[in-house]
Amino acid sequence: MRTRWTRSVRALAAAAAVAGAAASAGCGVRPTGVLSAGSLPVAGGRAATIKIYLVKDGALFPTVRPGLPGRPYLALEQLGVPVTAQERLAGLSNSVRPQQIRVTQDQPPGMITVWVDDAGPEGLRPARGSHWPRLALAQVACTAEAIPGVVKGVLLETSAGRPGRARVQLACEDFADLR
Fold first, then answer.
1. What's the pLDDT tens digit per position in 150-169?
2. Which residue ranges make up each domain of the chain?
3. Quick one: which of 137, 72, 66, 68 has its CA closest to 106?
4. Whole-model pTM?
5. How far apart are CA 72 and CA 176, in angstroms?
6. Distance from C-alpha of 152 to C-alpha of 144, rounded to nearest angstrom
7. Residue-level pLDDT at 107
8. Helix segments in 27-91, DSSP class H
9. Comparing C-alpha atoms, which of 84, 34, 44 is closest to residue 64?
10. How far apart (Å, rounded) are the C-alpha atoms in residues 164 and 123?
11. Selection from 161, 68, 147 nearest residue 111 by Cα
12. How far apart are CA 170 and CA 142, in angstroms?
């Protein structure tokens, strides 16, 4: 029984091969052997880098991380990522806590708007009880201005829908003493 089934499958496979060869021969395509198309492709592109500002000895310190194509605001998102082991060994730290910021718009052109979560009772201005120390605000402002195309600074807003939300416009030059 098995041999009859095996013969049937082989016969169908052979018929399909003959039909395929006949079909391609009928349209003017002649069978050829393997053709060499040159050497294997080699990836030669380099990933773009982004600049973010971390903290070292109480001051801002520019740091380079790998970027991703099509993600112009990745630098700000990277502020919400803990420092790497290599950055920690270099004495760098981050005043922005994870998942604290997100970019939602780029209006007007040249200005970037960042929504911040957990702004604290004092809002975004550095003050007693605020969750946003001055170094964290400086990190966001200077990192935003390091993004190509951003020229007017950063507008920070507390989470949407929260009563009494704050709007603060910052520029990296506001923190010249920390650079």
1. 776 676 665 555 555 556 77
2. 49-178
3. 72
4. 0.64
5. 25
6. 10
7. 60
8. 74-78, 85-89
9. 84
10. 9
11. 147
12. 9
